[in-house]
Amino acid sequence: MDEALLTRQMPHSVEAEQSVLGAMLIDARCVPEVIESLKSEDFYVKQNRDIYDTIYSMFNFSQTIDPVTVLEHMKQNGVYDENTSRNYVLQLMEITPTAANVKEYVAIVKDKSLLRRIAETAGAMTAMIQEGTGTAQDVLEAAEQRIYAIRQGRAARGLEHISGVILNVYERLAELAASDSAVPGLSTGLPDVDMAISGLNKSDLILLAARPGMGKTSFALNVLLHAGKFSGKTVVFFSLEMSREQLAMRLISGESFVDNKKLVTGRLNDEDWSRIAAASAALNKTRILIDDDPSLSVADMNAKCRRVDDLGLVVIDYLQLMTSAGEKTRSGDNRQQIVSDISRALKIMAKELNVPVVCLSQLSRGPESRTNKRPMLSDLRESGAIEQDADIVMFLYRDDYYNEDSEDHNLAECIIAKNRHGETGTVELQWLPEYTTFSSIDRRHQEF
Questions:
Q1: Catalytic residue annotation
Q2: Of the four listed, 15, 162, 251, 424, which is most buried by Cβ atoms within 10 Å?
Q3: How confident is the model over 217-235, as a mean pLDDT?
């Protein structure tokens, strides 16, 4: 019995680990390939991990990698053992058949590492159940979160050395330099807005707020449609207010430029039908997913998004309709506390999924009582927390909504009230009410 317990080790392959290190020492040309695929924690044997860490840091500083230099750096790092280290490094080179098979060795090490992480997660879940501290919903949420982190190749949580982070930054800079796009993030389809907010960037929470009737949903659908057509990624729209069919109708209207009233009444001529057919064909090619469940919580959305392949953007319409984290609202909770929980959870979701999350929000009646009815940050309903958690806060404002005889007929303002990536300011847009959509203002007539 005791022997069985002693032999029950976590999955690992000493031979594969040694062969990976041996290959790196025999032929330094395979070092970049290995470093791209393996992390330090993928090695189970501590001695192997120490050698890998040494090679990794030497590679970061573009130093020559061979048995002599690696041993020297191990001495400097304090992981050198007089009796064994030298012999072990030579042994690694002897037992490695050839550096040409390094990919196969790396695959075995990765596979064993993945199995260990799955086993750790299973153990943690079992411990949670036995302790009886959380509900089934809590355990399920924790399990999904950890399995998702494993799938993404990330540690669920942990400290990372700055050198690893800097490598990621360099990769991102190289990606941006090679890209033709004028903005780093996903485009909204409105160039002026893109320039002001640097597009929709990964892990950002973007809040779009306005009084009812200003066109929040239309703006969100504009962004969704553009990202769905041109980003090449899957985009998800959670509608807690409108049905799937209403949303599809709005998207068809915006894409086909057939008057929304005609679509609602069904009074369509032949030209309208052919436009709708072309718009539908274009929409069918996109990867737009719609969910119109009105009682979703952030945890539900997060769980659904984790299962989506190649996710690029999440849009939620709208914040005040969302339920708090899974359970029914506790009677003692005030609405402000609930909204702050939701907005915090949304920011965590954006970071975890590593995609931009655009969330719509209602404004309080504050602007109605002022002479200047343009929204301000303090008008956000149940404000404080939303304002803090969001990376970008945008307001929509149309003067002709309040003043029928306004000179700025069908002119909309996108007011950027908070922007972690740059300056705040106002962008003017054209509002096209018959297609319930926004467009950039044509400036060709304003050059003189």
A1: 241
A2: 251
A3: 85
